[in-house]
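If you are new to this repository, start here. Below is one unmodified record pulled from the training split, so you can see the exact layout before writing a loader.
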Amino acid sequence: MVATRIEDYALIGDMQTAALVARDGSVDWLCLPRFDSPAVFAGLLGTDDHGFWRLAPAARGPARPAAARRRYRGESLILESEWDTPEGTVRVTDFMPPRRHAAPCLVRIVEGVTGRVRMSSALRMRFSYGRVVPWVRREGGQRATGLADHTVPLPDGTVLLADRTMPPADGTVPLADRTVAVAGPDSLWLDTEAETYGSDLTTHADFTVSAGQRVTLALSWQPSHLSAPPRPDAEELLCGTERFWAEWTAQCSYTGRWREAVMRSLITLKALTYAPTGGIVAAPTTSLPEELGGVRNWDYRYTWLRDAAITLGALLRTGYREEARRWREWLLRAVAGDAQNLQIMYGVAGERELAESELAWLPGYEGSRPVRIGNGAADQLQLDVYGEVVDALWLGQTSGLTPDVREDSTHILQMKLMNYLESNWREPDEGIWEVRGPRRHFTHSKVMTWVAADRTVRRLSRLGLDGPVARWRALRDDVHREVCAKGYDADRNTFTQSYGSRELDAALLLIPQVGFLPPDDPRVVGTVEAVQRELCEDGFVRRYDPGVGEGDGLPGGEGVFLACSFWLAHDLGLIGRAAEGRRLFERLLELRNDVGLLAEEWDTGRRRLVGNFPQAFSHVPLIDAALRLGGPTGRAG
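And here is the target side for that same chain:
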């Protein structure tokens, strides 16, 4: 089987998990019930044998035709895909309704647009990342009163019964059987008015839709020891989902020239938020490779403090405060009173144990092995995280976020973080890019230590809070002097990746964005120009050169990093080259797929997206660069 390109997937989700839907109508990735749960469809990282759900016009041969058109319905996460066939046109609407207290559910509504189209559904349910084949059985339907809920109006005014049977004399309507799959603690329930049958360990449904006719298929998850979940009311769920997104997007304060791109990025970030706790995952996938066929394959279904902090910055700048409040509460629970053992990432509910392992039975996306779950980087020391967290807390306070109700727990946490940094900032670390080689004195880590001290001093001074302001002001100045002395190469007029090295690092582009130096400082301009000279490939930015100097402890290479490329566009705006920055920004927007999504990286040779998808760390700097280059109302920034 030829793998579907990463950019050919669209995202749907319910703010607790997410699914990837391909252009050919196949759902190839879905973890239930949480982002980090085992996948029930893992075909993305293997083959059809590892689970999928394909719903599309019936094909006459082995080819699987892709949808002619697809789009999100307005500013929502409701996906609409349309196929044109010789017999007519059909639309499939895919979505996952926000759960509240209901079971997680993936709903697929088939609607005839023109003509009469034969449809085919193939559902291969596999638990535990494709390893476990469930028991599948059918449960008998029950009779229900109320004909209207089970009918489909046709354009000529006639009405078809959804189950294609006549109602009995007592006015009740027979409901279709339910298909249930059970394995260990999990069960999946398929509800549809279409007739289903089993073949080759797959649940099939073949049916025909005429213009105006709608057929619904819905897949719900439930712990296997509980009774059956309620039958989903697809139309009611669709209306509720559309209403949810309309109300959420109406809060956005951005009205600039790139509204569509910014809004789609904000919706994506909201989709990556775990609603019950406020945690934010970096991406909904694991092990999509940074290099096709390579080993740089990581599990991103966790809450990185860095990624979550910058995500909150983007949300706050565009009018979203509730997400910031929820994340602040999540942070306080996750870190608790143990700031000296701060992890760089946690589970979506604050879990600390994220042991990394490999799934040997999965061949990986396009043969990219190993497939990993868990992430060993959780135990790394990355000093920059302290700066990002403190900066996010500062931004929340200056953006009008309501104070804590628990005796200012944020203040207590910030004091603990600063006490740790004060004692440990001179230590080497693994840095923002989580190198798996030896620790170093990464310049960016020290810059973000300065950010933590700077924001703490400003917060204490602004609010009149207790704390050693003079001591931490001196710490801020000491860090600044050391970075400028040891992290700067005067001969080349650029900051460097680590103290005493000659290598560059795209994270240095953040120096003016965090206020470490003003944009017009010659050292800032020199660093931007050095990155353009030495780290750019086809105009886009690599994080660093893994084959130069000490490297990162891993074989192979990677694509250009989209976040870094947006940082460069942002910096060009800061240093007075806004027109050049806007040109780069527009080129980056062209790398989004047809529904506006970005992965982590871009393979310039193959002209393909690579890395986990969609990636919060790509969409956040898109928003920030749009605010800088176009201004919140479309004026040049």
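Two things worth knowing about this chain: Residues 142-173, 632-637 have pLDDT under 50 and may be disordered. The chain has two domains: 6-141+176-231, 247-630.
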